[in-house]
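ARCHIVE CARD
Drawer: 12
Card no.: 0347
Subject: one protein chain, sequence and derived structure
Cross-reference: see card 0346
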Amino acid sequence: MMSIRMQLIPAFFVLGLIFSATPALADRTLSAGDQSAIRAVIQSQLAAFQIDDANTAYGHASTAIQLRFGSPAEFMSMVRTHYRPVYRPAAYQFLDLAVESGGIFQPVAITTQSGDTVIALYRMEKDETGRWRIAGCRLIDPPGAGA
């Protein structure tokens, strides 16, 4: 069985392609406090998914996402249907946060219940109160997955 680190090497290539597609501006850096806060928000949402706490999970979503789904129940239904690896991960590991001109991205290596690995690429933003919120999540299969 390949280690998670070996499985993720191709995924970093894909992430590099995604990030290189954004206009070239000087990268910003985030404070250690911001990085820790971002991880705490994602961890809290993942923990909420584990116990089907729709209100807490929904509360970590950006205002735009909340408006799109309208209620915690609708949000959870979407996550259960389309984001199963995030809804019930067997394990997860934070990868290096990326600050690009197009936004702030926190990749998380998710090990699924069946032992597969996917990358959950979280787009993060601060709301009007300065609180970090999840503005989107994209699941990326490492190249060669399922082959």
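Annotation on reverse: The beta strands are 91-94, 98-100, 103-111, 117-126, 132-140. The chain has six helices and five strands.
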